[in-house]
Amino acid sequence: MNDSVVVTPDWLAAHREDPQVRIVDVRDAWEYDGIGHVPGAVSIPFDSYRDESDVDRGTLPGAEAFADLCSEAGISPEDTIVAYDDTHGVFAARFVLTALEYGHDDVRLLDGDYSAWNREYETSSETPDVESTEYEPDPLAPEESPLVDYAAVEAALERGALFVDTREAHEFEEARLPGAVRFDWREVVDDETRRLKPADELEELLAEYGITPDREIVLYCNTARRISHTYVVLRALGYENVSFYEGSLTEWLANDGEVESGEVE
Asked: Where is the composition biased (Acidic residues) (predicted)?
């Protein structure tokens, strides 16, 4: 796995005291305070960087709001950010996607989650002292962003792109984009270790669903949370032609987009 995208607990343990490595805990504040956290981590809860009021595309919080969060947490644009949660990384991956969209060049996902870290390394209940910054976001231009809108999705359907639905079976059967394949985002996680499966195993697994690097891939779910994890994993494996439908099925249905339903043979 590319460690510029996903880092192991060993990597984080070796680098966590580097002043330019900023660790972000996206769990609820009570978990951060009451259960403990990776030493040196700052708390930026999931709900704080998710906004459903249409301030930006989908549930993105807007560049200014994201900059305020980073500034308060003492993060600078030049820092290496490592984000984690305690849910196999799905909430932390959303932070990674958000940071990338607002121009943060070096943001990575912790392979595993807080529980995986806690099995091998010390935790802390102390809140670190941080000096606030004046974080300046640099949002990606539309042509640079992996995020695509309704019109781009329509065009991708006509081109025969591979649409990957990361939701559960009952959601997929109720309504899905035409021709989509279902790939539950949790399939990439080893339940015993709580970490990602080995890269060669992941590549073989993805290939079983036709999700290969030579395909144009469009990811969607309901509200773009679960696809964040799949997107980060595909990037770590070197997939390049991957689009991220931020509006996902929620927007598609609101625009009366064509759907299929029922079980798949």
From this structure: 128-137
Give the percent of the chain with pLDDT over 90: 93
Q: How many Å apart are CA 47 and CA 226, to the nearest integer? A: 15
Shortest CA distance to 117 belongs to which of 82, 141, 146? 82
DSSP E strand stretches across the chain = 6-7, 21-25, 42-43, 80-84, 107-110, 147-148, 162-165, 181-182, 217-220, 242-245
Question: 33-54: per-residue pLDDT in tens?
Answer: 999 999 999 999 999 999 887 6
Look at residue 145 and give its three-state secondary structure.
Answer: coil
- Rounded to whole angstroms, the Cα distance separating 83 from 232 reads 12
> Would you say residue 125 lies in a domain?
no
Structural domain for 197, as ranges:
147-254
Which pair of structure tokens corresponds to residue 219? Answer: 């990811």
